[in-house]
Design brief:
This protein has a single domain (7-55, 69-99), classed as Heat Shock Protein 90, CATH 3.30.565.10. A hairpin with a 5-residue loop joins strand 3 (82-86) and strand 4. Strands 1-2-4-3 form a four-stranded antiparallel sheet, with helices on one face. 28% of the residues lie in helices and 28% in strands. It is elongated, with a radius of gyration of 14 Å. By secondary structure, it is α+β, with helices and mostly antiparallel strands. The two termini are 14 Å apart. It comes from Streptomyces triticagri. Residues 5-89 form the Histidine kinase/HSP90-like ATPase domain. GO terms for molecular function: ATP binding; protein serine/threonine kinase activity. This is ATP-binding protein.
């Protein structure tokens, strides 16, 4: 990754992978027993993806400033250049992209 991203971007990407993986662990359906992390380089961006075979449960409450959780996707949106969640079967994919040279 260091060939494409700056040190700060690598730190941001690491944080985003941690947050996305944590969401899979905390919010995935009980039937999913594993997830996969994928890193790709295409065009002018590096993309990190967390793949899960389950279905995330939707959050039922809004996080407050004093909540212990609920800010993961907000952090990903703040640090990544682009991000999203693809819920198309057969798996759920949460992803974040980082532009090369940003």
């Amino acid at each position: 990754m260091s060939s494409w991203l700056t040190g700060d971007q690598i730190a941001d990407a690491s944080l985003c992978v941690s947050e996305l993986a944590t969401n899979v662990i905390r919010h995935d359906s009980e039937t999913a027993t594993e997830f996969h992390v994928r890193l790709t380089h295409a065009d002018q961006a590096v993309r990190v993806e967390v793949h899960s075979c389950g279905a995330w449960r939707l959050a039922t409450e809004v996080s407050s400033q004093v909540s212990a959780s609920g800010r993961g996707l907000k952090l990903v949106r703040a640090f990544a250049d682009d991000c999203g969640i693809d819920t198309s079967p057969p798996s759920l994919v949460a992803w974040a992209e980082f532009k090369i040279g940003s």
